Amino acid sequence: MGGHHEYHVALEDKLSAFFHRPKDSSIIYTTGYTANSSTLLAMLKAEDCAIVDMAVHASVYEGLYETNIKKFPHNSLIHLERALIDAQSKFLTRLVVIDGVYSQDGDLARMNEIYDLTKKYGAFLMVDDAHGIGVLGETGRGAIELFNLLDKVDLISGTLSKAFGHIGGFVIAKPEVANYLKFQSRQQVFSSTSTPAAAGLLVAIDLIDEEPEWRAKLADNVAYYKKGLLDMKLDIGNTASPIIPIKVGDAHKTGDVARLLLQAGVYTNAIVYPGVSRKDARIRTSLMATHTREHLDIVLNAFEYVNQKVRIAKTDS
Ligand SMILES: Cc1ncc(COP(=O)(O)O)c(C=O)c1O
Fold first, then answer.
1. What residue ranges of the chain have pLDDT lower than 70?
2. Is-contact 166 15, C-beta < 8 A?
3. pLDDT in tens, 221-235
4. CATH, residue 285
5. pLDDT tens-digit readout, 213-223
6. Cα-to-centroid distance, 272 and ligand 1 (Å)
7. How many CB atoms lie within 10 A of CB 61?
8. Same domain for 12 and 87?
């Protein structure tokens, strides 16, 4: 209602330009969580339907209380197509919602196939690329750039709290949709906006273009670390990003592994139900461009030590 200052406008303009969209194609939120939840609450009502990959971030589900939901198993094109066909005659607007990079497995959406199916059945596509933007793609525009869909995805949502190193979120859409959200997104209209510290983001966004060496260093770190884990026969699933899970399975054992790693000086996330399904507990690790080889060797040695104490490597059988 008030408090939308020059630096907020400048930030929205910069985000529109960053994604090569026309001016007025973006709206900022105070978190990535609200970017998803508030946008979806404003867009989808009783006559509409969200068709969501089951592994999307919690903030997406938070935005679906006023609409109909069809969930499809993670990345399953057959189930997505079935849901699109079923929803076509029943609902006015069908919005497929996926993540670019999935936050627990670090794997990518089958975005090209999902985009094609979405359009085949007259639906819209929203991609939450919180983990991809600033990290993946030739110029750091995210998983969406990697799949050549930068100018095609209907709604892009992202966070300013990961690669950009601050706090906040945003949505990129057609200018008329972004404008609609500025009036209809309740969590944006009736909540305080970000502080002047957000002006620092204007510089952070430029750094993605000006210092591509950080992305290259991160990719090197990921390759080195993944090789180390795979040499130990640890199960890292289908990760294609700097989020690298080490799958353990049992929740109690995962807790033990996290404790042993911490004793060895390595902090990780133990991810158990409901973050993932009950038998799929894992240690989640996330790499940074500022990690050195020495840091990565400490972590790999810690996994070696833990694997001797509590076997977590896959057996050959
Ligand atoms: C995929 C995904 N989307 C959205 C968010 C929420 O972003 P924020 O932390 O800025 O609220 C997260 C987590 O932090 C996330 O992993």
1. 315-317
2. no
3. 999 999 999 999 999
4. 3.90.1150.10
5. 999 999 999 99
6. 18
7. 18
8. yes
